[in-house]
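Retro notes (design track)

What went well: tokenization of the new backbones is finally stable.
What didn't: we kept losing track of which sequence belonged to which structure.
Fix going forward: every design gets posted as structure first, then sequence, in one message. First example under the new rule, 302 residues:
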């Protein structure tokens, strides 16, 4: 009986792996207009955030207040920018290692991953692009970055095309890499004034698996009718299948202006019921023409 019971619970766990609740997105006047493309939890209510068009290379630190029961965002403010004094490398992904108290940032311009101390200064440690990432097309380079302290593994991937997810150890040496297949796009790219389709961000989990956010950003010539489709997947490296956990759509119409191009994502605090909060940040292109906003969204995962 015990044997059969254990088998049943293993099967049940494999089926009911996640209970996902999408929570509302918010924007705050205390967050300056930016091009936010990555976020990492520093502990407590503090988060490191990168912008791909900041004046110099470095990161912001934000304070984000989250309801400990619902997981909804209550407040957010910018506490400052910490610069390396080097030119911006089109920073896209950011990760935090609590053991070393250092930050990693991936740059799409050079496809390097570089390490920073908490004042924004470069430590001198970096990861040059592997042969897989040497010849990536312009603006389709390293998009995502995530570190998990339980597995002590750093993860990155390119945005689109032949997507390869690469892992690194704490000595910043390459481990294994895995192909990832994007869902087919929904929009007709030929009719777009602007179009982006690919992986916006990833999040490494304690069991060695990943959350992957695919997003499709479509802007027609008239701008009205623009939309972003987001799909959150659970991906087990080494397997070809991926599990859709949630999907949502934001848009720009005469009656709805909630369009949000989410490019950054990280795990945040644990709530009172034991679930975790996933925090996402959107790239507003400096609050383009006063229409786009710097949206922040949470997702509750149990």
């Amino acid at each position: 009986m015990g044997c059969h019971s254990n088998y049943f619970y293993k099967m049940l766990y494999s089926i009911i792996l996640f209970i996902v609740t999408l929570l509302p997105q918010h924007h705050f006047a205390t967050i300056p207009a930016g091009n936010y493309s990555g976020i990492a939890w520093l502990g407590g209510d503090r988060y490191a955030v990168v912008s791909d068009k900041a004046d110099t290379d470095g990161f912001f630190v934000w304070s984000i207040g989250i309801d400990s029961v619902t997981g909804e965002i209550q407040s957010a403010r910018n506490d400052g920018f910490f610069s390396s004094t080097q030119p911006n490398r089109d920073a896209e992904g950011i990760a935090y290692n609590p053991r070393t108290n250092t930050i990693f940032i991936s740059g799409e311009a050079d496809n390097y991953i570089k390490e920073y101390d908490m004042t924004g200064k470069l430590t001198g440690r970096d990861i040059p692009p592997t042969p897989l990432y040497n010849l990536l097309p312009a603006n389709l380079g390293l998009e995502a970055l995530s570190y998990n302290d339980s597995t002590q593994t750093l993860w990155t991937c390119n945005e689109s095309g032949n997507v390869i997810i690469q892992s690194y150890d704490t000595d910043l040496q390459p481990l294994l890499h895995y192909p990832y297949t994007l869902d087919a796009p929904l929009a007709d790219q030929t009719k777009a004034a602007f179009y982006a389709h690919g992986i916006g961000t990833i999040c490494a989990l304690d069991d060695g698996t990943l959350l992957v956010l695919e997003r499709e950003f479509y802007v027609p010539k008239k701008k009205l009718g623009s939309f972003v489709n987001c799909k959150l997947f659970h991906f087990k490296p080494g397997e070809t299948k991926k599990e859709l956990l949630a999907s949502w759509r934001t848009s720009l119409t005469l009656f709805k202006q909630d369009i949000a191009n989410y490019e950054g994502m990280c795990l945040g605090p644990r709530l009172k019921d034991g679930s975790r909060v996933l925090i996402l940040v959107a790239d507003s292109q400096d609050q383009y023409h006063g229409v786009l906003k710097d949206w922040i969204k949470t997702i509750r995962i149990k």
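Added context from the reviewer: The longest strand covers residues 192-204.
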